[in-house]
Each structure stands twice: as structure tokens, then as C-alpha cells.
Amino acid sequence: MKQPRGARREATEEKTKTMAENKPETERLDLAAVRARLNGLHGESYWRSLEELAETEAFQELLQREFPRQASVWLDGGSRRDFLKLMGASLALAGLGACGSPAPTSEKIVPYVKQPEGLVPGKPRFFATAFTHNGSAVGLLVESHEGRPTKIEGNPTHPASLGATDAFAQASILTLYDPDRSQVVTNAGAISTWSAFLSALNRELEGQRPSRGAGLRILTESVASPTLAAQMKTLLAKFPQAKWHRYEPAGRDNVRAGARLAFGEYVDAQYHFDRCDVILSLDADFLFCGGGSLRYARQFADKRRVRAGRAEMNRLYVVESAPSVTGAMADHRLPLKPSEIPGFARAVAARLGAARKTKSEQPSPRLARWTDAVARDLEKHRGASIVTAGARQPPIVHALAHAINETLGNVGATVTYTTPVEDNPTDPMASLIELAGDIEAGRVALLIILGGNPVFTAPADLRFQGLLSRVAFSVHLGLYEDETSARCHWHIPEAHYLESWSDARAYDGTATIVQPLIAPLYGGKSSHELLSALAGQPGRSGYDIVRDYWRSRNRSKDFELFWRTALHDGVVAGTAFPAKPVKVKKVQSSEFKVSSPSPQTLNLEPGTRNDSLEIIFAPDPTIFDGRFANNGWLQELPKPLTKLTWDNAVLISPATAERLGVSRRVGARGGEHGRIFVDVVELRYAGRTLSAPAWIMPGHADGCATVTFGYGRTRAGKVGTGAGFNAYAIRTSDAPWHGAGVEMRKAGAQYALACTQFHHNMEGRELVRAATFEAYRKNPDLARNKQHEENATLYPGFKYEGYAWGMSIDTSACTGCNACVVACQAENNIPVVGKEEVTRGREMHWLRVDEYYSGSIDNPETFHQPVPCMHCENAPCEIVCPVGATAHSHEGLNDMVYNRCVGTRYCSNNCPYKVRRFNFFQYSDFATPSLKLGRNPNVTVRSRGVMEKCTYCVQRINAAKIAAEKENRPVRDGEIATACQAACPAQAIVFGDLNDKNSRVAKLKADPLNYGLLTELNTRPRTTYLAKLKNPNPELKEKEEEGAG
Amino acid sequence: MAQIFHPSTNTLSKVSIFGGIAVIAAIVAALAAINRSSYVTGVRVARAQPVPFSHKHHVSDDGIDCRYCHTSVEKSSFAGIPSTKICMNCHSQIWAGSPMLEPVRESFRSGRSLEWTRVHNLPGFVYFDHGIHVNKGVGCSTCHGRVDRMPLTWRENSLYMEWCLECHREPERFVRPRAEVFNMDWQPPQNKTDRLALGRKLVQEYGIQKLTSCSVCHR
Predict the structure, then answer these.
(1) Is A102–B112 a contact, with Cβ atoms under 8 angstroms apart?
(2) Interface contacts A/B by beta carbons within 8 Å
(3) pTM for the whole thing?
(4) Which residues of chain A have a CB within 8 Å of the CB of B113?
(5) Quick check: A962 and B132 CB within 8 A?
(6) What is the pLDDT of residues A87-136, one digit of tens each?
(7) Which residue from A625, A679, A689, B79 has the fewest beta carbons nearer than 10 Å?
């Protein structure tokens, strides 16, 4: 394959010369050509995008340019203004030049009046707290510089974190400093005060007293705080007729209903992937979603890491509709339409004797093969397997999964059940429907909305927005003045979780006391304080409320000791729920009968006429249900797998796209580098229509479309307003996750998406190396064998005495969850550039996660490759810098000196790994005061015209070295964790000293799976990778090949 | 054809060529000199402060150790500017009514910080750590000069990178025994050989490295 490629490149060079005059306009993607090309490929081949497979010349030329033509010209004035607005950059920078010299200035030093005890100026302190997301908590250690929280790390002692964090938790610190947060109490849009609100509230409450609160409704999100639940109980005791509703757009309704169906009561399932060898995921994205996902990712990766002597590796089967993070890790992945998954689950259950067979079903041969192979594998691993169902799946699938686990004897071994984390849980959708009904019937006089944004997130059929205006007195407590605030009489600014006292339970029940890192920036109130005001105690502080709750719960004699220990550790000892013995009920066979189309409709051949599609709703992978819409870090974070930024899209399979005539074209004009012009499609579903851009997603199930909700905000703030389309507009309360009967057609228009998948391409030179576990056992050196011999040199090599820093990235463990990317952004003051700039290939992330695919476009294998700076020992960037702004350190770091850089960009041109980022404009916001608070004081905030790149977190290296030198000892292995390494839930990234032969990184580099990128260039990269191992089921593999052949 | 130029123009041209070079050299030299002069660097220019604090008085006359006020100098990158509370430890007892100290008392009463004018200022892209320098035997007076003789504080050295590198390249010329770091009066041995011998011994003993890589200070 290599030979013709090289020859072809020569030919293209000829052509590009002639094409240089008239700008190359890439052609529309031709999926038929892609398929034809793929069929012609043999052996291992990896591809990044469908365009790359189509191999049009214009696209090839586009990829070969580091900075595409005219990239340095800002073309359109309008968008420039938008951008400036977005970034809030200002001319105040003019005076910045003065900062560049040590000459005396009139700068002031402002010491404390009374320095707080324990604080050493210049030394960060860490405080334990917790981030609550979608009803469960992740324990954190938050770095604080003189009272300003700057960086979030995971708490190693917290069961849901184990030291790791996800992208949401990492980015939540930016929300704290968001200048668009609401800052004042408003009444009907006019500025008011907290005390004015309290008196208005009291009048209303007095009116409610005679009816014992019959008109009072409180709407919250799912509540993981035991204190809040207790407060609510007190309030409901005072107003027995009042009701507490809970709504979460990405709620766990189906999980609960499934448990109830299986056990007759609601219990939470906890999985132990560390004891598990075979996993069947029924649309469960357990590595990415849910309260235990960080822990699960760690356990899953630990069972996948194959090191010398290990003879086992776990195996993951995933059945899903839309490609997910978990699906990308699967050894076998089966894309099925949503309606087919229950049938599959049932077939597996029947095969294992967990459910009764029905006669009517006649699965297709392919499905039958799959069912047999999976069932046999599960059977072989009784007590060491897990079947898990995703939150989107209907209750029956959950019940079947529970039944299979019980039949296999997994309960107690790999699966345990506990009482639910949420106090007295309710079904969120049912709860909202009830509230809407009550408002409609005029039974609600006083509605208090604590957090959330129901006007935006409620299903369309409830018409919540209109209903809200029927309530006589409505209050919204929120971080932003959003869509809901605009419809409520009162808006109260909410205190961010880093500003308030609270508590929260993790997925296993472990409680953490949430302590504030900073006083509320805008005088915000917490839910606790507002609830306390409702209960007639308006003055009580959040601290008192939380502390008093725990005092009432405390059984030890010394409460102060208990309280301080809990605060220090970040977990309240002994609060994890014990396992609860439950038994799967004899379920009526009728309940297990699946009322969906029979699986005969499987394997829709390309070209089959079937205009009706199924629809899948899912929360957005970066801005979630819309709550992070104004978070620039998350908006610009390339979404896992699709690599889209700043937008959502309708995901459809290549076959479905072909049928609908939907395609796309990569823009190539004016430096467009990631601007993808896609067809807009019109979705007709349940009497509603929605126009949205369509994205062709390799591996998506045919005959269905995935829409992610969270985008299309109208009042999110400067960053999020107007981005994407609103999928809530067609979501209905009766079918919040899946629906059938969607009509989709091309609307004729085109829409530009910003996708990073086409950026920083390294042109398939064995960048990804993968093998099966079986092949590895036969020949452990398979990755190394491919490696080029180290190039000979006439010059003697530099001898690194002392430390020699290096990094190893395990591609078998990496799930592509993006936590590292945001962690890097937070640690290194990396700016946000905006959609327009991303389309020009100018995103600033120092660390990117490349996606590679192999195999058919209908169900490819996926490979993730995080790419930071390689810190080459023979760095190509260094020799071309005319001003010596990038130089090698004596410890092997490729240093970047901002103050020397004049912005020639030669280094970036000469970097084969494409890891250097250039500040084309003033991306860093020097003007907004609140953003200054959140910056890492140990990293320079870069200005315009400067090149930057990954430094291996040199500030952390230096801090650790200084600490070690003071104690007269070498830096210990593991003492330095780069930001990406610290955040990684799968521990895929290991950093350390290569000169220490006992260090973890040195051992990994000695592993036979170790390989470097583009080592044939004799760059001697310090960052290397461990080849990816997969563990396919031989039975299934052979047959799949037969089937394909 | 008659000569257009008189023979003397030969001399003139030579003079103007070499003179021109000399003038340019002089300008460069002058610029370099100006750049290193106290006009630009602020070296030995005492700066006005909200309270005319005298290191001379507090260190020489009173014998207060540096670390009494600069509390974090051994622990942190930042040496620490004393909080108002530290001033008031003594000044609530002595000179308690002095009008000169009114801003200090006012700060203590109101809780508003004193705003001192920065004397030693590094650019934003330079990261200096006091703690490690002090721990490796770099004396206060090596960089800050005889603070004990400064009635108002000034900058003793330019803080230019060339100045930093003097020591980073040849630490043996500047280090002193750890015990003498805070001693303002410490003098290295007069004899050059002895001085270097002591320096080399300390460099060995303290494990001092010649750190000249960019990322040591710039990041």
C-alpha cells in the first residue's frame, strides 16, 4: 500500500503547482468512492476521515499545509468584531510592553493586613470538595493560590474519582469565573435585592399557610445532597400540601424503572470491572457517562493493560446505536437501531436461560452468530462477567441485564446493588409532567426553581415556557440569567459550588462535604440558603445548615474531630452504602416480551427504501444538557469521535447518508482548514420539525439518527448563545430517548461546522499500531518489529545526566474522554479562540486526541491517540528558529521561550507532529477581571504573535525539583504528574525520569509494545506510545471475516 | 579630462567611512551604557514608600533578622512582604504614637492593606524562587546588596538576564555557607584562590548545578 501512495504523492505535487493559482475547492464527499477504495485496501490500514479515504487531490493539498493559504489574513470584518466581542479583548493591552523589562515600575505590592494561618504566599494549597453532576458527586482537590481557586484535581481517596476527573469537572472552574454569570437579584427584569425578595417571598408564603402549602411547588434537579433532602423534608413537614418535583433532562428514569421491573424496588447497580473478564454493554457508555464512570474507566483499563507475564485481558462487547466512547473501546461492536437492542438483549437472555424464549423471533444469521458468541463467552465467565444497560435503554433492557447478571452468578461478585444514592428518588420525567399538569390545572401559585433551566430543557410537548407564565409567583435560582430566569418573576444569582457549602453523595453513597474555595463573587445564594429562607430561617448560612445536618447525624463523641477529618479527607468515612441483597422477581413473560419491530428488519442494505428513521436523543458530550453552553473550554473541546466544536449535528450512518443524498465538503478557501460544509436536513418527528446540519458518522447504526440536546441556547451568554440547534424542540415527554417515525430529508441549505479531525494531519505513517492479544502472546515484539532502526549519526549524542524526562501513553487504556485536554487548558492558561478560528485550524489546545479508524466505514474500529509535544531529542523545530526561542534543556525538554519568540512560525512548519500552536491574534483575555483570578500564576499568559506548545508542565517539574533539592534528595518517581496525567481516569499517561531505570515510565519504554511516532525521521521523541491491544473473540472474528469475504 | 575630485577627498572619504563606523559603534556603546545605567535599571535609586521604612534602622540598629518579616523566604518562591500585623507586633508598643507610622496603624484599624512600591520587579515571563536560592547558599546581600545600609530601599543589581547568568554559569563565585546566608556582614575570603576553593567546595557539598536551560526560569 505504501508504494503507490508515495508515487501518487509525486504526481500530486505536479498538480498542486498548477492548481496553486486557482484555489482548490474540495469536492463533495462521494461515499461510493470511499467504499470502493476501502474494498481495494488490504491488511491493516488506518484512516482519519472519510475525505482522506476519498483521496481527492484538493483535500490532499489541504492536509499538507500546516497553515493553509491566507491563514494569516483576517478576512471578514463582521466576524472579527464578533470574535473580539467574544473574547473581550481590549486595547488596554497597549501598556503591556512595559511588563517585558525588569525596569522599575510603579507596580505595588499589597501584603495582607493579617496573613491567614497556614498560608505561605506563593505556595498553592489544596482543599477537598466535590463536583456534583447529574445527581452524583466526584471528589476533588482544588488548588488555591492565595484564596483563588485555579485548578481542579481529583481526590485520590474519593471512590468515584480515585484521583481522576472528567472534562466537566475540569472545566467547571471556568464557569466560576465566567463574566456572564448573573450578578444581581432581579425582579421582573429590574435589579432588586435579596431582602426585597425575602419580603415578597414571605408575603406569598403567608398566603400559602392556610392551605398548608397547596399552591407551593419546588422544582430541583436530581439531588445528591443529603442536607438538601433533609431540608426539603423539614419544609414539606411545614407545608404538607406542597410538592417537591425533580427534573433532569438526562435523567435516570429508565434505570429506575428497569430496577423496579426486575426487583420490585429501586436499587442502584454498582459494577466491579476489576473482577470482570467479559463485559456486554447494551448501549451503556459506562466509561464516559454516569457517576461511577471515572472509577469504571480505571478498573476497565487495569484489566486491559497487558504487561510482561500477564496472560489475561478483558473483553468488551458493545451493542449500540450511536458511536460512543465505550463503543470505541469495544473488542466487538454491533451497531443496532434502538428498536433492535431489546430484541438482542432478550435473545442473549434467552440463550443464557435468564428469560423465556418466544417463538416468533427469527434473528438474522449475523445477529444469531453474535448472540451465540456473546452468550457462550458470558457463560464461560460465570461470576466474572457484567451485562450493563445504558440509561437510554427502555426498562425491559435493564431488567434483562439484571436477570442475566443474576443467572450468571455475577451478583455479589461483579455487580452489587445498593439503596439509591438519591434520597427518596422520583422519576424526573414523570415528576415534571405532574408539575406541568398541576400548573395547567391552576393548582400552582408559588413555584421555586432551584437550579436547572427547565424552560430550555423541558420536552417540547409540555410547553413549559407558556405554562410558567400562569404561575402567580415564580422564582429561579441559577448561575446564569437564562431562558428560565427570563420567564420567572424573580431571579436569584446562585453561588457556584466552589463558592458555597453543601454536601453530596457519590455513586456508591459516599458523602463528601462540599466546602467553598472562595467567597461568592457576586453575592450568590446556595439552594440551601434559599430553602432555609422558605422554611422561615432566612439568615442561616450555608455553613451552619450543612454543619448542623452532620452534627445531627454524627455518632462519634467529638464532632469537631469528625467534621475536620471529613473536610480534610474529602469523604465522610463510612457513608458508602452497603450492598443490598435483592432477587430478580419472576417477571411475567409478557413483560419480557419486546414490543418492538422484530429483528428481521436488521441489516438494512444500503439503498433500501425506508424513509422513516428512528431517532435517538442524547446529552451533548461536551456541554451536556446545555448547562455548560457558556463554558468556552467545553464549547471548543473537540467532541469525542465526531471532533466537532461549537455545534451539534444530526449523526447518521454513511449508508443512511447515501440513501438521503446527504454529503459534505471540506472548505478550502481562505485558510479554511476545518470548515466543513454539511447538508442541512429537516427532521419531522411527532408533528414537529427541526432543521439541523447532518454529520456522517462512521459506525452509526443504519436507519436511525442521533441528535444531541444542549445546544441552541437563546440566553446562555456571550459564548453559548446561538450555537448549534435545539433538539429539545422535538423531544417529547413520552419518548425522551428513542422514537420512531422520523422523516428526514435534505433541506437544500448548507451549514458550516468547525471540525478538528482534519487538522494537524500526519499522513498515515504507521502512527497507530495495534494488534490482537492473541498475536501479541505469540509474538510480543510485534510493535517493535515495525520500528525503524535508530538512524546512525556522526555526532556523539548529548549525555543527559541527572533527569531525563519522558512520557509514555498507553493507547490500549486511552478512552478518548478528553479530560486531559481540558486539564491541560486549565493548567497552562490556554485561550479559547472561537468557532471562526477553529475552522481555520487555529485552536490552541496543546494536547489533542487524534481519532483513527480502520475497517469498513459502516462499523470501523476506532483508535485514540493523544498527541502532546514529543520533546524530540533531535527536535526539528529548534534548528530552524532564527532567534533561539525554542531550545533544548539539559533534561531533554524542548523549551519554548515566549519572550524571545518573534513569530516566524518556522518551528511549526518544521514540526512533523504538528503540536505547535501560534497566537495569530490576541486570544488570551487580559481585560476581563474575573478571568484573571482563575489563571495559573506559574504559567505565562501568552500574547499575540507568540508560538506555544506543550511543556510537559514544566512548572510542575520545577516545583517538584525545588522541593526535592531543598530536602537534598532526587525527585521521586510519581512525584511529578503532568496535568493530563493527573486527570486521566484510565491512567493512560505516565510521566517520569528515563534515567531512573526503576521509574514507571522507564519500564514502560522497555515494554515490547513501546513505539515512537515517525522515528524514521531520527527525531528521537521523548513521548512514546504503547501499541493498542484488542482482545477479539476468535469465534466471532473468524466468522465476521467469513461473512465479509 | 580634469579630475572631478580633489585628492583630499580620498582622506575625507576614509575619515567619513571609519568615522561613520566609529560613530555607529559609539551610538551602540552609548545605548548599551544607557541600558545598563541606573536611569533605565533603577539601580541605586531609592524609591518613595507610603511609610519611609528604613532597613538600615531595623537591621543594623535593631538587629532584626530578615526572616522576621520576610517569613516565606526559605519556603516559597515569594519572600513575603510583612503583613501589617507583623509591623504592629512591635509598633503597638514602641513608636505607638509616631505620626510617621499612622498609615500602618490606619491599615491595622481599617483592614486595608498598605500599598508598597515594588523595588525588585521581574517581567511576567520570569519565574524566580527565593526558597531554593536561599537553601543553596545564595546570601541575601549577594543580590539585594547591603540592605542593612539602606535608609530607603533601592535595587542593588539590574536584575538583567546577563546578571542572573553570571551566577548560574559560575555559582562558585557567589555561593556562601548556608549559615551565613542571612548575615549581611559576611565577606568571602580576600584571597581569590581561597574564595574559589570555598565556592567549589560549597557547590560540591550543596549539589549546586549550573542551570542555564531556558525553562529553569522561563515557562
Answers:
(1) no
(2) 145
(3) 0.89
(4) 110-113
(5) yes
(6) 444 333 333 333 445 666 678 899 999 999 889 999 999 999 999 998 89
(7) A689
